[in-house]
Model the fold of this input.
Amino acid sequence: MTFPQQPLPRRSFLRGTGIALSLPVLEAMLPRTARGAEAQSPVRLAFVFFPNGAIMDSWKPRETGANYMLPETLEPLAALRDDINVISGLAQDNGRAKGDGPGDHARSAASFLTGAHPVKTAGADIRVGISADQAAAEQIGHLTRLPSIELGTERGRQAGGCDSGYSCAYSNSISWKNATTPVAKEIQPRLVFERLFGTADKQGAAASRDFYRRSILDLVAEDTARLQSKLGRTDQRKLDEYFTGLRDLEQRIQRAEVEARETAGVVRPNLALPDGVPGDLEQHIRLMFDLMVLAFQTDTTRIATFMVANEGSNRAYSAAGVSDGHHQLSHHQNDQAKVAKIRKIDRFLTTQWGYFVEKLKQVREGERTLLDNSLVLYGSGLSDGNRHRHDDLPILVAGRAGGRITTGRHLRLEQETPLNNLFLTMLDCTGAKVPQLGDSSGLLQELE
Done:
């Protein structure tokens, strides 16, 4: 096995005209004494949010510990059961009204990662608090090219009122740079791809390349050939696997764009068209998850948030066989026909998150996997959407944080345990030492 005399820098790139392509972690990047041994990989954090709560009797296991049975909504995760913890008893107290009256959906999203109570306003004087992802980015974001990425599937307004006198910024954002600044999320896969693998030289890139017709791999082919001549067989195989996945993702984004234009009745002319949003929801969600996997795999960032839909979203889920609006159904008043439809939506969204977890598990990092070196949260700021409850929230966490977390359990915590204790623990696993987040009271010792 041949390695360069000096290790490759961890933040190595393949360069071409207008782009700089990040590389996955290779053995050639490790100190010579560490090659062949267990590498110390960074811990990545992903926070995946879904709206409108869940049908909790189909979500929450009856048994605790390792010998629990997966309830109906979590059945799609059966193959990943040993990689996941189900956590019950967590609450986000500052999502409650506290004298501010209606607006639980806005408070649900605004408080989810901040643990802070949003100021009730539909004007410009919004205020809530820094979110867990951005608190981590402040401390470890400088270690990667992008401090964090923020994704979604629905744009939504950032001004005006959306929920009972609350600004739309609250319902449409879970990531907050500080108390007054929500971080805009990107909903177009093409633009996420360009942010991850393009360069700041947008004009140069556009002049040299039609991004819609040429693969990013074509542009770095010369640099790739030079690199591969210096790598051992294990690294060459890992690089081939990475390139195969990257090209597959490119092609899927291209197909999604074509399908979206055809659905809209637009014939593609012989020129670059504006980016678009895939018309197929499942395809859209999975493309975003695949982009998150690549962002983590290449260490382009270690922190990601993803809103699978905005809070209070009334989107229909035809892929799950539900034509009614999600938000409307969530106020089911115990109508069992509506409850059954919500269960279908819950199961559909859980399945998509399972797809993400499985993709992370397929990427090897030494003797571990990318999932082993991550913590991936999935949850909502509401439990019972019908009654707008902010206690005993539906929360899943996948991954072992490089060996710090024991998985495969249902942890039933004391009721009203602050959700922010979980976030503090997740941040601590990355090396981000945040003393306080929202209403946190300490680390969640039960998780470790």
About this structure: The chain has one domain: 43-199+277-447. The chain has a mean pLDDT of 86.
